[in-house]
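FYI - complex with dihydroflavine-adenine dinucleotide, inputs then prediction.
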Amino acid sequence: MSTNLAKQTDFDAIIIGAGACGLMCAVQAGFLGKRVLVLEKNDRPGAKILISGGGRCNYTNLYSSAQQFISQNEHFSKSAFAQWTVEDTINFFEAYGIVGKEKTLGQLFPVSDKAKDVVNVFTSLCADMGQELWCDAEVVNVEKVGDNFSIHLTRNGKEQKLLAPKVVMAAGGLPIPKMGATDLGLRVARKLGMQIAGAAPALVPLTITGKDQGWYEQLSGNSLFCRVWNDRASFEENILFTHWGLSGPAILQISSYWRPGEWIYIDLLPHQNIVELIQQEREANGKKMLLAYLSNLFTRKFAEAISDRLPADKNLASLSNADLENIDALIHQFKVKPAGDKGYDKAEVMRGGVSTDELSSKTLEAKKVSGLFFGGECVDVTGWLGGYNFQWAWASGFVIAQNL
Ligand code: FDA
């Protein structure tokens, strides 16, 4: 075959990306008797599923709804989530032997704790239904040619062009380039005249530089249950101090709502009132030093660290009202201005992506380019930490399959 002439395939659609969205789409299309070819850049499917949830795959969240997703259009995901619910995810995996267990906050993992069981469901079903999956096949371009799409790829180092009547862009987002992430979804959308909503790392650790860095560094490895918030959102989970700044679930969550130059706020003792606690304690133990008291509430290491910002060597009885105000502000409204984030190398997802204005919310087909569908992470629908992003990937893959 010539490398310049595109080969007409007998597939109903070509799916680009064998990740969560592409694999679900291939399987659901198979259930409807549609033949697809899945093209995957990596040498195996589902690379991110395999590393997700620490290799255990938090594959959905019991409480998932459109509210836990960030998008320029907060209503966009509702149609997909109505078509493919959390119950559908649970039932689908149960039907193929994966029973879920809730770890925390509605997060569902396979009882086996093995992410590879999730990938195996898709590879087995694709094989059973004769859905074709080519690995080591990197798509470099997609063009509209008449009623078809011409897909330009390199497979095992050789260039090839394929023609297909429909294309599903399930090539994911930009996080973790070393695992195969490319900007193909965004690039193709842009070339076809579609708008992109600001793409940036999300669910990502935040960095502290300058004179404050040493303060965080001394606490590296310490974690603390906190409430973290800014003007847009608030989360109660652990934060983790690292030698370069802050991580942990609450920080990853707020990072999706944080913009460079902004402050975030941390309540280090949520649901308690430090001033009331001190007032109660000093009635019985007025001679107790503030540092000793804080060491009861936090780890000694953490109490010592915050003591450099407090009158730690005073005893509780001698704390003035001004001291109590300072303590209250420090404990319940600890202010942090991150220098930046750890970027796509460490981000769990990309926020932003192909603008929802460009897609039908019911079918996920591009409004300007019929036959072209976008699903999963390359669309401007970004979930919180906790299984929400997979729920979107499964739901969008299902919806697209119904419309191929
Ligand atoms: P995904 O990235 O899964 O798949 C896209 C595929 O397209 C990839 O296989 C890629 O190689 C391929 N591709 C890219 N460019 C290509 C090209 N040009 N040609 C051919 N193929 C190409 N979410 C969650 O809900 N629960 C969790 O536990 C976790 N845990 C987690 C841990 C870590 C470390 C990360 C980085 C991410 C998570 N996530 C998560 C997020 C979750 O992995 C992510 O939202 C989904 O994988 C997105 O699914 P997609 O199918 O859209 O992209």
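The longest helix spans residues 115-129. Residues 16-22, 39-42, 47-48, 51-53, 57-58, 138-139, 170-172, 175-176, 180, 182, 184, 348-349, 376-377, 387-390, 393 surround dihydroflavine-adenine dinucleotide (CB under 6 Å).
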